[in-house]
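We were asked to recover a plausible sequence for a given structure. The inputs and outputs are reproduced exactly as logged, with field labels preserved.

PROBLEM: sequence recovery
POSITIONS: 206
GIVEN STRUCTURE:
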């Protein structure tokens, strides 16, 4: 298999894996993260473009929120995929990214200084803020049947609460200069959204 074929094959593997996730984690999320990763890498040359393609495609293929306690099985499936398709040489780095990318990860492992991780993590985080971030958050909240907002709640029980728990913190966690620039504009949009949201919410107490 040449590189183009390996990319095509990986796309198919990822599409198959994503079945059952909410639509905020759908194929379009993967496409956006791939595009953002490419963009950051073009600006900063942090990693070989081929490994950026493969890793951005696979980054959510073992998401713990959906795999539950089967997360290790998810990792094993990806490793097996890499072994079987001539990608074993990049296994360690790809798996390092997949294991460490999540914001919610309590116990990171492996090499946290890999520029590939920094790059893909920024791309994934950028897709959680801005207009698309707002759309994904409410989509996820709807999927879980969470309330859109509970006044005074700032610890994530509602979707607006999730902004405080996570989304508003992402700008300060960007790893790359290009990521930081893109995050600035997207963060401003979150703040504007919240301002307007609260202005409209005021009518609930009349
Ligand atoms: P990551 O895997 O990068 O840590 P998640 O998988 O937790 O991120 O989140 C993926 C998407 O789902 C993001 O857009 C995030 O904002 C959204 N999301 C996750 N948890 C919640 C929640 N409790 N309420 C609303 N949106 C959520
Ligand atoms: Ni993702």
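RECOVERED SEQUENCE:
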């Amino acid at each position: 298999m040449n590189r183009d074929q390996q990319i095509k094959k990986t796309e198919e593997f990822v599409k198959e894996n994503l079945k059952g996730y909410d639509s905020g984690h759908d194929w379009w999320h993967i496409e956006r993260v791939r595009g953002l990763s490419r963009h950051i890498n073009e600006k900063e040359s942090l990693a070989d473009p081929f490994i950026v393609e493969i890793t951005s495609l696979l980054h959510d293929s073992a998401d713990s929120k959906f795999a539950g306690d089967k997360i290790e099985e998810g990792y094993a499936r990806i490793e097996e995929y890499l072994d079987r398709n001539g990608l074993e040489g990049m296994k360690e780095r790809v798996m390092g990214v997949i294991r460490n990318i999540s914001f919610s990860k309590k116990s990171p492992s492996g090499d946290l200084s890999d520029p590939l991780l920094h790059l893909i993590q920024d791309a994934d985080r950028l897709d959680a803020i801005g207009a698309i971030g707002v759309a994904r958050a409410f989509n996820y909240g709807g999927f879980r049947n969470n309330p859109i907002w509970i006044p005074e709640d700032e610890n994530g029980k509602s979707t607006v609460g999730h902004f405080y728990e996570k989304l508003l913190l992402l700008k300060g966690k960007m790893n790359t200069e290009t990521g930081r620039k893109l995050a600035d504009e997207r963060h401003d949009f979150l703040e504007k959204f919240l301002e307007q949201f609260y202005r409209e919410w005021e009518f609930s107490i009349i």
